[in-house]
TrEMBL record, chain B:
Pfam families: LptC. It comes from Gemmobacter nanjingensis. Keywords: Membrane, Transmembrane, Transmembrane helix. This is Lipopolysaccharide export system protein LptC. It comes from the Bacteria. The keyword Transmembrane applies. The chain crosses the membrane at residues 12-32.
Amino acid sequence: QQANIAFGGLKQDTSLPVQVEADNLTVEQATGTAVFSGNVRVAQGDLKLAAARVQVEYAADGKAIERLHASGGVTMANATDAAESKEAVYTIGSGNLVMTGDVLLTQGKSAIAGQKLVIDLKAGTGTMQGRVSTTFVPGNK
Amino acid sequence: MARDAHSRLVGWLKVILPLSALAILSTLFLVARTVDPDAAIPYSDVEIAERLREPRMTAPTLAGVTRDGATITVTAAEARPAEESGTSASSVRARLETPDGAHTALSAGQAQADASGTLVTLDSGVLLSNSAGYEMKTEALQLRLDTTQATSTGPVEGFGPPGQIEAGGMEITEAPGAPGQYVLVFNGGVRLIYQPRNP
């Protein structure tokens, strides 16, 4: 089933510069694919993403970055929420972040687990899919 | 009568015209500049003395193929034997073409080739531009001539398709475990800043 989640703190300006830090970056000369590896940190405004490996996927014209494909255990955090999953794909242009594989999202005291979390950073909304289970701590206002 | 004058005129012309032609022709050699054989050589005495004292090569070119099939050509403005061993060259350009079709152009202020001739060290500012779209600047870079390996000895900065890049070091080598594939590895801590285009 599916649970809709409000990401109040996640209104995100997706035109902010994206900064990626990692131990190393390997670029395949012939194809140009670029892969960051070794505790990779992606930061854009308040959004912070940490992963073991991030592959850069370019747009068709090869000038802009279309997507960042993070894998090897991803943790995402922003001003108010944090989420963990096996993999994540962040499409910079549209500003949506899809986290897949044992996703655990914590908002304040409440936690939601599921298989897939789709967050629309521009609108600040998200939907969790796949065996969603939530734990509320009453009275956590 | 008129016809007689005309033919007399033609007769005279037949004599005067060739003579004046001959006269003009002969002055040609009088006014010609004398060719000074010495001035033909563009070297001054000072340069010749300097060359004798210090042997050097102008516009040398070094080309070779590495074991894994990448061609390397190095050209410089001037090369001369270095103090201890090997040769040193100034304003150097190098080009590395790897079998995967990509190529890298390097230019540097100075270069030293070691005696064994398997390693060229480019320094005093190296500019690297790779066909994958990366333009990087670094202080010095070591280019091996026997296998395909270009390694920067210090931090690099520049930009590429993903954006502006700074890294602790950089290396172009054959991808480990994938012969025939070549990778550009930025290591020692990489920082990339990408400015999204507003759609």
